[in-house]
Design a protein that fits this description.
45% of the residues lie in helices and 16% in strands. It is of the alpha+beta class. It has one domain: Gyrase A, domain 2, CATH 3.30.1360.170. The radius of gyration is 21 Å and the shape is elongated.
Length: 205
């Protein structure tokens, strides 16, 4: 049994300045103000359109990311409909095989301190899940059958592609104080990555 922390990774090579210039070119068509494009006009233009709520312009760009988290978190992620998803499949992945180290991997809950009574109880249940899963496979169960006992804490990987407008919507919902703690943990990590690449599009969140 392995326990790991969640992780995020932006898969695209992002040139933030080029993305802003492309968005500006698209947006200025609406106002026929292309003649006002200069080498440094994109940021101010995009700030203004975001303030005015004209966010459809930023739909012209998308970003794909890899998120490693527990399956419970992905149930929330895929509720965002304006997106594309590819997720690790428990139907076809046989975690008793060598390629998975013959073990299950779980995501460490952010709300329990390691060593606490609650964490120890959680770890016991994860170990029981792994033992039971491997026993069922050994008895002849297919992965799609044995997965019935797998918990939300099971580690999964999901590739998520959204346009920039939908990413803004995602971050507004999933970084809020009332968001689920593990969902918020992942969203905050990813938001920081996005701000590092395209701060002007996300610095108001």
């Amino acid at each position: 049994m392995r326990v790991i922390a969640p992780q995020v990774e932006i898969l695209d090579e992002i040139n933030g300045d080029e993305i802003l210039r492309k968005i500006e070119r698209a947006g200025r068509v609406c106002y026929k103000s292309e003649d006002r494009i200069t080498s440094d006009s994109a940021k101010a233009f995009i700030q203004n359109i975001l303030k005015s709520g004209h966010e459809s312009v930023i739909e012209h760009e998308k970003v794909s990311v890899r998120i490693i988290c527990d399956r419970g978190v992905t149930h929330e992620i895929v509720r965002h409909r304006m997106a594309s998803y590819s997720q690790e499949s428990t139907r076809y992945c046989n975690y008793s095989k060598d390629k998975f180290g013959k073990e299950l991997t779980f995501i460490k809950p952010c709300f329990w301190e390691e060593g606490s009574q609650a964490y120890q109880k959680w770890a016991q249940m994860m170990q029981l899940a792994e033992d039971t899963y491997n026993e069922m496979i050994a008895m002849g169960a297919k992965p799609q059958e044995a997965r019935s006992i797998l918990p939300n804490s099971l580690k999964t990987e999901i590739i998520v592609t959204m346009d920039l407008r939908e990413w803004r919507h995602f971050f507004k919902l999933r970084t809020a104080e009332r968001a689920h703690p593990q969902m918020r943990e992942v969203a905050l990590m990813l938001l920081e990555e996005m701000k590092g690449k395209m701060d002007i599009l996300f610095d108001d969140i």
